[in-house]
Amino acid sequence: MSKDDFLSKVLSKAKLTRRSFLKWSAAVGGTAAVAGGVPEGFKQAIPVAFAEEEGKWVPASCWHDCGSKGFNKAYVVDGLPVFQGTDDTVEDKPNRPQLRACAKGRAQRNHLLSAGRLKYPMKRKHWEPGGGNKELRGKDEWVRISWDEALDLMAKEMLRIREEHGNKSVLCVRPGEPTERLMSAFGGYVNGWGEHSGGTFSAAWHLGWGIPFSELENDRLDLENTELFVLWASNPAWSRAGIPMYDMTRYKKNGAKVIVVDPFYSATAQTLADEWIPCRPATDTAFFLAMAYVLLTEDDPEKDPLIDWEFLHKYTVGFDEDHMPEGANPKENYKDYILGTYDGQPKTPEWASEICGTPPEQIRYLARRIATTNKVAFRMSPAPARVHNADSLPQAVMTLGAMTGHMGRSGRQFGHDWGHSFLAEGYPLLVGGWMLTPTSYVNGEPFENPLASGFKGYFGAFWRNERFEDDDVWLINYNELWHALNIGEYTVGKDKKREVDIKMIYHVYNNKMNQFPGTMESIEVHKKVDFVVTQNLFLNPTAQYSDLVLPVQSHWEKYGYVRMGYRNQIMWTSQVMDPYFESKSDSWISREIAKRLGLDPDKVIPCSFKQNVFDHVAACGVIKEDGSGYKPLVTITEEDMEEFGFEGEPQEGQISLKEFKEKGIYHIEREKGDKYEHIPYKDFVDDPENNPRNTPSGKFEIHCQSYADYITNCGWDEKSPIGKYVPPLEGYESTFEDWENKVKGEYPLQQYDLHVLRRVHSTLDNAPWLQEAFLQSFWMNPIDAEARGIENGETVLIRSRYGKVLRNVTVTPKIMPGVVALGQGAWVNIDEETGVDRGGCPNVLHGSVSTGQGHMGLNSCNVEVEKWEGEPLKYDHQLPPLVPLKEA
Amino acid sequence: MVKQYAFYFDASACIGCKTCQIACKDKKNNTPGVNFRRVVEYGDGGWVPHPVHKELLMPSNFFAYYVSSACMHCEEPICVEVCPTGAMHKREDGVVLVDESKCVGCRLCEQACPYGAPQFNEESGVMTKCDLCIDFLEAGLQPACVASCPQRALDIGELEELKKKYGDVNAIEPLPDGQYTKPAIVITPHPDSQKSGEGTGKILNPMEV
Predict the structure, then answer these.
(1) Rounded to two decimals, what is the model's pTM?
(2) Chain pair A-B, CB pairs under 8 angstroms
(3) Which ipTM did the prediction report?
(4) Rounded to an integer, what distance in angstroms lies between the CA atom of residue A566 and that of residue A242?
(5) A144 close to A122: Cβ distance less than 8 angstroms
(6) Using one digit for the tens of pLDDT, what is the confidence trace for A646-687?
(7) CA angle at A654 for the pair A648 and A656, rounded to the nearest 5°
(8) Which of A238, A237, A236, A230 shows the shortest CA–CA distance to A260?
(9) Which residues of chain A have a CB within 8 Å of the CB of B50?
């Protein structure tokens, strides 16, 4: 068959079935249930050849919360996306690289058209107002219902619950603005708070060092000056797809040295590392204290200068007793803690080595290497800070940075690695999307949840304040959420608990059952309440345990989306295809529920989706030439508004509306040494008197009382004002029953979670192509495997204090002995008979336990692993897809 | 006129992210089990006691790297040689293609190819393989895999020109020695890359390739 023949065949097939519903039926097949994980239509589809005149490229959104950004587009033939492409809108060069998408972005067509997509509203067969048979949640049958029936029964049950139990009985965690607006108008809802991304860096940086997350990293062009990169538990090859890893590779090829410290010989280490130094999970603080000890004891300002004393004295407080902040106990200084002056324990490399598993001479070597290299960029992922009792880690890290002076200077940085793409290298040069406006409706009225009055949006850890204790503020920490709801009591502050009795849980585009620690307890909670509603694209685990499931549209099916890239790109993606079966947008759903609750839908959702996209486009800004602020990016004329059907004011910008819509991306070209080369807190380092940090002392606080007080007030732990090593509840030490005599306990291995290439948290876990490309692995060292009679590829049972998980093991020397790892985000799949998770979800192993500043403390957990004697697991791509409804 | 199209692969930049594999899968709409481009991880390493602190284990002889491989569009393609119907053929520009109307699905080419490039499509009953995205090439675009690579580890060009630019390595472990089929590929090795046939490591992701 010639190219023309098969192209015309595909086109004629598509044209026959133009109406959206029929078209989808033709494209993905009615039943769509075939072994192998791919819908019928996909299997039989013939590849479509590219022919410019037949189809068109449409900029296509990739909206997932991976922290990176890539640009995608879809080649659309007669309304069907037939394959994807990526950024080729500019010539590719280091000063203005194409924003190429990753494997996950490239699998979106496959994901959005896969058999698992929700098509219709569904009700759990045995649900009745009040709950019906609640035990059946997770295993009941689904019944297809109409939108009217779904919305009517939802509104009715919401009104009943509000009348009988009040708004404080409704839980809705970070649902997204259309739902936030609805639930606020409804009278309020219980929300959650806590840091699940930045770990303890969150409050430590804000309070101790006065560093906001927009000052994480030097500009990517400035880092071309760096001589040595130390990547600590930082694996951009897996967790920062795209430009960050491309840049690291450039630096390396241009001569920079790279040292990777990690329990895993990661893809980043394989590709870039000159040296790999393994360190056990959750023991990093000890390693840092020992490096400080090496510098303190070996420093000789004349013959062997290792410490930048000038930096310490000029920019910090709390390092030694002569430089303490006002009112602090002089004995509580960092130097004397390191030397063991008062606690009798010098923090020597030998002391640390016993804990972290790194030989003492390597600790000494790394400390000296960092101290004696002119330009060091130290990048730690927040993973080691997502550990129980890890509140001291950022302090220990930053103090080493201050001791070596690698801060606020060209080619030199110390701390947290890449944050979210738009914050990764300093203030953005292009702004847009939700970053810009107080509500995501650009011209909408502000709103407020009456049960979190005065608070807006996302509640990261550093957001907590004394008002959390007010009677009308109902925010539960993520980490204890499931346990708190199970026992009916949550922590509001130090020695303060509050009773809570949740009757309704409303999940909107999330998977909290899977993604918050304590999945087993979460399942119990979901079986207790009266009503669980999930709004999603797929029947994820949270949806599986719901009573009502509402199918939503993806960004490929909506008018458009404005999103920032990294510092130098902004994107406007457009609608690729018709809405999938009966799916609706979140804002439509909010409006319809509002009507049925007796609320004004125009107040809940203030404008049309399309108009709001336009408002976002109009609001996009580009940095002014002198860097003093932003000016409009997009030129908009009266004709544009008429043609596209928008309302607004004409404006002058850098790119026309039509060109932006067609290309979907705008880049800023950079030059080395240009005025946008950003170095965080350089102003402070250049002139500390006139640019003080936002801390009580105006300096970097190595001794930080406000940080210690903050943690005390959270209500879970007490904390020293300086960075001290406190073993976590489940770390290395706790793998022993008798630490002194080194007798191992019931759970002798340390398990931690990796961000894997297969998915973004739990999103995309069910994308067939990604399932095939990236098996959901469980990694174990050959020494540990051999000791348990386990061979590569076998199914093993992983047990913790909280749950049991099955996985097929990858036996590999790449992971440290004594340490095992699972990819985070795998969908829990509890076997009803055994209570064992066949899906490989790490949160089954983790307890619902809060710690420190309310950050997630799950990145070390104690487990035992044994060979599974039951039926071996198939790999996920070998299983039939999870199809929501078995249709005739 | 291009005499011999060839891929370029930079093993020192590849991070095994499989964007190329997924981009290819998407372009070709391939079913599970059929992957015209695949990414192999090769390496080894072990743990030995520390010379002084015997209870500590130290990594020893560690190395690992990735190889992204598709059809090599060989200068002397064995698949063409063994094909009994003439379905497998080599174009003037060097691209090796299957004429599906002539293919009888005997799978001899699959057995013969040392790179696992020709793959059998259960649905259509014929062989399928990388066609270098000739539709893209004809429109002045790069093949899906090349254009997708976030690490810029892939390129396409005229074999002789790529050789001038990047050297003449056409095989590293775990790829077979290039002398038999003369693969049209130019490779920049990873610093730890081992010579084909002289490797000490093993394939680390056998279930994924």
Answers:
(1) 0.95
(2) 168
(3) 0.97
(4) 10
(5) yes
(6) 999 999 999 999 999 999 999 999 998 898 989 999 999 999
(7) 55
(8) A230
(9) 359
